[in-house]
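Notebook entry, structure prediction.
Reason for the run: the old model in the group folder had no record of what sequence produced it. Starting over properly, with the input documented here first.
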Amino acid sequence: MDEDGPKLGTRDLRDRLQTLKQLGCNVLVTGDVSEDVSHRMTRKLLGAPEESRTRILALTDHDREDVPDLLPGEVTASDDDVYVADYGATRAASAGSADDDWHCDDLDVLQGRICEAVSTAKIASSGLEPSELRVSVFTLSSLVARHDPEEIDQFVSTVADHVRGVRGMGHFHLPVADDAEIVERFTPLFDIRVELRETQGAPEQRWHFPNSDDTTAWFGL
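New structure, fully documented this time:
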């Protein structure tokens, strides 16, 4: 989905994003790029490691061995403010405690566990500051392959509402070409769409704001 017309500048993007962060927002990340680029974007959206963040990472087609590649800097799955949920035949653990193991064997369970983690984080922090909560669903592709469109819409809408409810920031990876039909179908559920591409080995990003049809020029990741 290639938008023509005036492009948002760096300051406009920063201001627009700051406003959405204050309100709570959800991001759809698209682009047929290498896994390394997707990992890099995930680390970026989960927030700088030195910042105080509560991070929820929901894995749908990756193993727990991949978690270090998805979390930023020195952040680990055993940190008290990190929750990792594995979808499928694997399990999920919160704060590295065996007592908090999660068995996510269907979409409803995964949805419930993510929303439960959001509520738990809110209670533990006596409330969350804007954009303090970061949620990553990595990726939507395997869920789309296993579930009906209506089920996926319900899952995304419910998780996104919980994220907005605590003024957090959620991002859902859909590693397919941005002009794919499924991207067009999902876009209205999100506040932002970030398109990724690789040009001569250099990853780039372009931000789209569906509610206003505004977009940025391509710039480095």
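Summary: Residues 25-220 form a domain with the Rossmann fold fold (CATH 3.40.50.300).
The old model has been moved to the deprecated folder.
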